[in-house]
Design goal:
TIM Barrel, two-stranded antiparallel ribbon, 11 helices, 12 strands, 35% helix, globular
Length: 346
Amino acid sequence: MAAAPVNVPRMKLGSQGLEVSAQGLGCMGMSAIYGPPKPEAEMTALIHHAVASGVTFLDTSDVYGPHTNEILLGKALQGGVREKVELATKFGVIFVDGKREIRGDPVYVRAACEGSLRRLGVDCIDLYYQHRIDTTVPIEVTIGELKKLVQEGKIKYIGLSEASASTIRRAHAVHPITAVQLEWSLWSRDVEEDIIPTCRELGIGIVAYSPLGRGFLSSGPKLIDSLSEQDFRRHMSRFQPDNLDKNLKIFEWVNAMATRKCCTPSQLALAWVHHQGNDVCPIPGTTKVENFNQNVGALSVKLTPDEMAELESCAAAGEVQGDRYPSTANTWKDSETPPLSSWKSE
């Protein structure tokens, strides 16, 4: 496979020295959540292609599978690949009797880290996120244990995922937080009110997951027709028929501008995230080389301030119909109070 023809620049993520590719690769869909696991050989080839193309920031979690995505990455990182990548994984979400629970107690934090190190086949994790915030354990306690793991050389940098501004501040006071991972795209913009400003005030890098609106900003409503019965997106509020019909106009606006700019809707949506600032790293996921190459092409799409404003006006927060997660995902929630659409920690 030929490498993507776009030069992938490097960027500083956070203030502690971590350098990553300006666009990452979300690996979740290779093994879980978005339908059945994909063929291991194909996914390994895709990971190798990404690294050869300059996309070296790889994102996984112990809950993807669970565990199988980390195992996949562990195999793909053999043969000298590990030294070429920035490896991020997460802990904090577990399954108990088929239901998701959140844990952040020190004993669990340490055990989770040891498990990820073993599955990934590495001595050290570059960026270790708390995947969701355990509101029963003070964040200071969780970060205290992560700080010990840094001191022991088992992790290099600490991250948080889907944390509130107050949680980020409290965590950062215990040990510098290098990155906060959050959902940020043209149709998920609630983080712009207080999470993004807090990260920037503290010098924390921003990692945007689902920057393509879980595929909606790539394909529009027709996406739903291609999803397997096991695909989590079939249960998401925004993909239900009534909401999907209403959200269609957002895709139509994006598609129209993409046509004018001679790029794909995916590239335009990703370019919008890139243009949010040099402290933002989107991590679109894919299981296809052709989609990966298309996503990397977003790095060459330039947007003027007027084009940014046009996109933002047509995809304002109030225009999007449906919550980010289905009601059945309450166990993923970090908050002890509604609304589910905010899905933040307290």
